[in-house]
Structure formats: C-alpha cells, structure tokens
Specification:
By secondary structure, the protein is mainly α. The chain is built from 4 helices and no strands.
Length: 105
C-alpha cells in the first residue's frame, strides 16, 4: 500500500512540475528554473521507484518516504535559487495583461 501511495505522490509531483513550467505566478520569477528542477527530481524519484519495484521493495517505508522527499526537493531548491537571484527586469509589455495590444470596444 505504501508503494502505491508513493507512486501516486510522485506522479502528482511530476504533474506539478509540468504546471510550474507553464504557469506565470507572481511569486515565481523564473518558472522554467523552478518547474525544470521539480520535474527533474520527480523523474529521478520515479526512476528510483522503478528500481525499487524491480527489487521487490527492499527499501521499506523509510526508503519510500525518502523518495517522496526527493521528488519535492527540486521545487524547494528551485524556489531558493529563484529567491537568491532576485526579481527579474520586466518590460511594460510583459507585465501588461494585453501585452501591449490596443483592445477596442
């Protein structure tokens, strides 16, 4: 049961990584960095789950919890690096909702 829950959790983190790549959040300046690191560590965690399944679960519950933690590690590292690098410079067009287009009524 713990293996199934870990597999579901890691797959949700993979989806979260994809969402981070394409979302334009206000508190994340570099969404490609954060989403890429999240996706990278989640894929590595999924690979570890495959290895664990092929060995018939020798890692036990502690190993599965560490695989879950590894899948989230990329998000945390990406957010810390994003915070350290600081805000990015935005042009007026990139922050405007219509991206500079004049909308007629």
């Amino acid at each position: 049961m713990a293996f199934i829950l870990t597999a579901i959790f890691v797959s949700l983190v993979v989806l979260f990584g994809f969402f981070c790549l394409f979302v334009n959040a206000e508190n994340v300046e570099r969404n490609i960095l954060v989403g890429g690191l999240t996706l990278l560590t989640a894929v590595i965690a999924a690979g570890l789950l495959v290895v664990d399944a092929n060995r018939h679960h020798p890692e036990g519950t502690a190993g599965l919890v560490s695989i879950c933690a590894l899948s989230l590690l990329g998000y945390g590292v990406g957010r810390v690096i994003d915070r350290i690098l600081g805000p990015t410079d935005h042009t007026v067009d990139s922050k405007e909702g219509t991206l500079g287009a004049d909308l007629a009524d």
